[in-house]
Amino acid sequence: MKRQYFNLIFLSMLFISCVDRFRIPNDINQKGSGNFGAGDTSFLQLSPVWNSAHGLSQPVEISIAQDGRVYVADAGVNSILVFDQNGNSPTGFDALKGLVDSETNGITPIDVDIDKKMNVYFIDGSQRIFVWNQYWNEVGINKISVSGTFIHAQTGVDTVATAGTDLWFSLLNDNDWGIVDGNMTDNQALIDSLIQPHIFYDGRDEMTAYLDTYYQSDSSQFTGLTAPADDENMIFVTDNYGGQNNQYRIIQIDFKRSLILELKSGDLVWAYTGQFGSNAIGYGTGAEFVNKPLSLDVDYQGNLYFTQTGEYFPVHMIIPNTSGDYTTYSSGFNPVADDIMDSTLFVSPMDVAVDKDRNIYVVDSTKGDVSVFSANGKFFKKAGYASKEDTVSIMNEPVSVTVDKRGVVYVCDKEDGAIYRFKLSNTLDEDLKTED
After folding, report:
1. How far apart are CA 49 and CA 398, in angstroms?
2. 398: cis peptide before it, omega within 30°?
3. Taking CA 320 as the corner, what is the angle to CA 318 and CA 321, rounded to the nearest 5 degrees?
4. pLDDT in tens, 54-99
5. Are 57 and 77 a contacting pair, CB within 8 Å?
6. Distance between CA atoms of residues 282 and 158, nearest Å
7. Which of 215, 359, 368, 400 maximizes the CB count within 10 A of its CB?
8. Rounded to whole angstroms, what are the CA distances from 208 to 201, 224, 245?
9. Is the pLDDT assigned to residue 153 strictly greater than 90?
């Protein structure tokens, strides 16, 4: 029995340690965008524009990983295209090109985000969420668990479970049980199914239907996706299905252990699947509700930001309250006092992004520009113009926006098939060139 408990403790420590084994490069420019002040001038366009010469066709969403790489969901080529901050395409990401599902049907990505474990999540407008892990692809998977012996921490009772069964899933996610022995396989087909992009969450699963009692999870239409900055083992999506029950909401998807992987480095790591967690925000027309959501982002404090086309406010910020038995959310903006809640400022607010200082960027596809607000929702400036004298945006149909750690604003223009970049003129770095 002592030997079994020693194995249990050893495996637990190993699982914890190897989650953090992958380190983000520390040579990224950490110069902050800072808080907006009186000395800030205009957002100037940076050169060059990223376009078809960079392989872009119809970029519809954009996100930046912890290592500074830029991930672009391109609907025109059914791909997630990856760039460094100079616009070059690094190697090792071919699996994200020409995306297909398990039935070889093409996947048209509409949003993408990356967490600290280097999981790349993307959605296609259906009830599915897909995932691809960069680290597993860099290191390689050697074996995958097929069964294991579990022991109860209090009673010492043990049982054997087969991977993929309900019993396996239950024991693997129960803190009262630990796995003390396991059988692994090197079946290449199974390894390939995890190395390639695969489904992380599916609203059609029986467990989802059981947990998501009051909604039609199998009919969900996910329009926005975001992964918290911290290692919180959850992601959020916006559901824009509608229907008779006004199925407009923000869903929290929780991570659940599904398999044990032995990497070619010798490390043992968990593989996760997504499980319905809760309806974070439900339907309504007020400042604390969702009505036909389009996009979603989260800041380092866990506050959620989203845009919507329904009544009455096009841009929202929702603050989590975790003091009770379950998390509740309240509005972070004052509908009367805060500029960002003024619906007259927007026509078609397609996307919202938040930088590391909680400044907020809202892209409007009809106006062709980006409205920038301070963390408290006060209007600051607009981006999208070649110079501060211009009144006509250089973009035709901008649909998404993100900001890197240097304060560079990236905007996807769907019609132009391009990505435009902007930076405040008084914070330009020497390695960033403005448009001539």
Report:
1. 13
2. no
3. 140
4. 999 999 999 999 899 999 999 999 999 999 999 999 999 999 999 9
5. yes
6. 42
7. 400
8. 9, 19, 18
9. yes
278, amino acid identity:
S
288 burial level (CB within 10 Å; 0-12, 13-18, 19+): middle
Whole-prediction pTM: 0.90
Helices (H) and strands (E) in the chain, counts: 5, 27
Give CA–CA dist 222/236, Å, rounded: 10
Rounded-to-integer distance, Cα 43 and Cα 60, Å: 22
Six-digit token string for 136: 């597993």
Q: What distance in Å separates the CA atoms of residue 304 and residue 281, rounded to the nearest whole number?
A: 10
pLDDT tens sequence across 257-279: 999 999 999 999 999 999 999 99
Judge whether residue 28 has pLDDT over 50.
no
Query: Are the CB atoms for 99 and 80 separated by under 8 Å?
Result: yes
- pLDDT tens figures, 184-195: 999 999 999 999
Strand partners, 251: 237, 279
For the chain, what is the mean pLDDT?
A: 89
| Cα(85)–Cα(369) distance, integer angstroms | 22
Q: Which residue has the higher pLDDT, 429 or 17?
A: 429
**In contact, 394 and 408? CB cutoff 8 Å:** no
Reply yes or no on whether the pLDDT at 4 is more than 70. Answer: no
| Closest of 358, 370, 361, 293 to residue 332, by C-alpha | 358
pLDDT digits (tens, 9 = 90+) for 118-133: 999 999 999 999 999 9
Q: Per residue in 393-416, is it b (16+ CB within 10 Å) or e — as a string?
A: bbbeebbbbbbbbbbbbbbbbbeb
Exposure b/e, 267-279, CB count within 10 A at least 16 = b: bbbbbbbbbbbbb
Asked if residue 8 lies in contact with residue 151, where contact means CB atoms within 8 angstroms, the answer is yes
pLDDT of 12 higher than 50? no
**By three-state DSSP, how is residue 108 classified?**
coil
Contact 408, 422 (CB under 8 A): yes
| pLDDT for the residue numbered 391 | 85
342: tokens are 């003024």
Residue type, 224: G
Asked if 403 and 85 touch (Cβ cutoff 8 Å), the reply is: no
Three-state secondary structure string covering 289-341: CECCEEEEEECCCCCEEEEECCCCCCEEEEEEECCCCCCEEEECCCCCCCHHH
Section 158-165 average pLDDT? 96
